[in-house]
Structures are given as C-alpha cells and as structure tokens.
Design goal:
Elements lengths: L4 E7 L4 H9 L8 E10 L12 H9 L6 H27 L4 E8 L2 H12 L3 E5 L13 H9 L3 E5 L11 E5 L4 H12 L7 E8 L10 H11 L1 H9 L3 E8 L2 H12 L3 E5 L15 H8 L3 E5 L10
Parallel strand pairs: 1-2, 1-4, 2-3, 4-5, 6-7, 6-9, 7-8, 9-10
Antiparallel strand pairs: 5-10
Helix pairs in contact: 2-3, 4-5, 6-8, 9-10
C-alpha cells in the first residue's frame, strides 16, 4: 500500500551537510502530502521560561536582563540564531517542495533530547539529519548528535548526504537484506514510497562465512540469495519497482558501501534490528550504524512504529 501522508522532523544546524539533507529529500520517494517540521537546537543552558510566554518573547526578555546575567544574554543570542536557521530551512523547503506543509522552531537544550522528544510528540514517521554538524572532523562520519538520533529514535531515521542533481537520473536504491524482521520492514518502507518511473532497486545479500569462501560455490550463493529474497522481490515488484538481487561475500558493512559506490546508489535502506536475525551468522555486527556512519550516499534506517503486515 502506497503511503499517502507522512510526518517528518528535520534536524537543521545551518551546516553544509544539513542543507544537503534538505535537498536529498527530493529523491526520498516521499508522498506529496508531507507535514515537515524543521527544528534547530542551541546547545546552551537557560533558565526555564514561563509556560505562557513565546520563545521570541523569552529571548527578548533575556536580552534585556542586567549585565550580571551576561551568560543568559549570550545564550539568548544562540537561541535567536537557531530560530533564524530553522526559518531559513523552512523557506528553502517551501521552494523545493511547494506542496508540503512546513513549520519551524528554534529552541535550546540537548539537541538529541529535544529532537527525539519532539519526534515523539509529533508522532513523526521519519527524522532527517545531516551526516555531521559544525564540529565534525570528516565528511563521511556521523556527528555525535546524528549518531545518537540514529541509535535512540523510535521512528525511522534518514542520514541525508545527497543534493538536487542538475540532470536527474532514475533513482537507485540499495536494500541490505538478510530476511530479518528489520530488513523486511526496510522492503515494506521502500515499497510504500512514491518513486518516479525508472526507479531501480537492488536487494543486496552479503554472506560472511567463518573462513575463506570457495569461489566455486558462487552459483550456490546466488541460488541462496534468490531464495532468501523471494518474498521481498514479490513485494517490491508488486509496487511496480524494478528489482534485482545481488549476492556477495565478505563483511556486510563494507560490501554494502562498496556496491553502493560502484552502482552510484542514491540511498541505502536498512532495518534497525538486523543483528537479531535468524540468519545472524550471515549478517554480523551493528551493520546499520556502521553503514550510516561511512556511506557516501544517504542512508535510511527503518523502524516500524506499528504493525503493518508482512511481505506478500
């Protein structure tokens, strides 16, 4: 069943990565009816405001405090800046996706806590974050806030690394698949999206053997992967998506990224609980976190909020 409405929460800090995450949503297969809320969080401590005062009025009040509250004044400036950032992102989203309903807010506190709390309050289907913020050391690694959101969110999380291409091509989506409940949820999520014609899916099965793999068994491996993905292929093809299976041997977190790079993937979809699979011996380690941290394309880690049924 195609998704007709979606609530997303976008964590935005005015960094290049968080701006790329906004543009990346153009290739995320989202429905036309999206309610997006942009949130920028100033990581400062401030005294709590009265319940009946607006954030803007609160910031103005702090700015007017005597000099002995200079620390509050500095914090107020940071909150005001976060509100400007969030408004800027809102205006950009409205230009990129004019059919969406977009709101924004700037606030203060622990970024991870504030974002996760807001997602719960809004009942968000998806949290969107850039791969790192201003304090990151390398482009391909997650910042601490994005990593915590990825690990602790109750909903799906998309780490956006893309941008709007000058010459759009058909979407290319990789789904890491191991027959776990999590990877089935990733398949269902992809199948429910609104993808443009020509979107191409690769179900990637990576087997990690206990010792050196005998290359003469390649056809056995491919047969295993075809059987393992049978229901997933049926579900995706029923959604009108061109789907092929790729079988490989090695460490999943490395092979998935390598394949995505070679193929020019726009995004890798993964389930949040692959390690609990009954095929765990084929899929070891915290694959989702490792792939999200190191991939060169966007990564979406799927968490299902409610039971929506299984694969066809």
């Amino acid at each position: 069943m195609k998704m007709t409405q979606m609530n997303i929460l976008i964590a935005y800090d005015f960094s290049e990565c968080s701006t790329c995450a906004l543009e990346d949503l153009a290739v995320a297969g989202l429905p036309s009816d999206v309610r997006a809320h942009v949130m920028s969080v100033a990581e400062v401590w401030l005294p709590p405001p009265d319940a009946d005062i607006s954030m803007t009025a609160y910031v103005d009040e702090l700015r007017s405090k005597p000099q002995r509250f200079a620390g509050w004044q500095s914090g107020a400036k940071m909150v005001a800046r976060s509100e400007i950032w969030a408004k800027t992102a809102k205006e950009r989203l409205e230009k990129l996706y004019p059919q969406w309903s977009v709101s924004y807010e700037g606030t203060y506190g622990s970024p991870t806590w504030e974002i996760l709390s807001k997602a719960t309050k809004l009942g968000s289907d998806l949290i969107v974050a850039g791969s790192h913020g201003h304090s990151a050391l390398a482009n391909t690694f997650l910042g601490s806030v994005s990593q915590k959101i990825l690990n602790e969110a109750d909903c799906s999380v998309r780490i956006g690394r893309g941008s709007v291409p000058a010459n759009p091509k058909p979407n290319r989506i990789v789904i890491g698949y191991d027959a776990s409940e999590g990877s089935d949820d990733a398949v269902l999520s992809v199948a429910s999206r609104s993808w443009p014609d020509g979107t191409d899916i690769r179900l990637v099965v990576v087997v990690q053997p206990p010792n050196e793999y005998d290359r003469s068994q390649r056809y056995d491996l491919e047969d295993f992967a075809e059987r393992l993905t049978s229901k997933a292929k049926t579900t995706l093809r029923a959604a009108g998506l061109e789907t092929e299976v790729v079988a490989d041997v090695g460490h999943p977190k490395e092979r998935l990224i390598q394949f995505a790079d070679r193929w020019g993937a726009d995004c890798i979809f993964l389930g949040a609980n692959n390690s609990g699979s009954r095929f765990a011996k084929y899929w070891l380690g915290s694959v989702a976190s490792a792939v999200a941290a190191r991939a060169n394309c966007s990564v979406e880690v799927v968490r299902r909020r409610a039971t929506t049924g299984g694969l066809i």
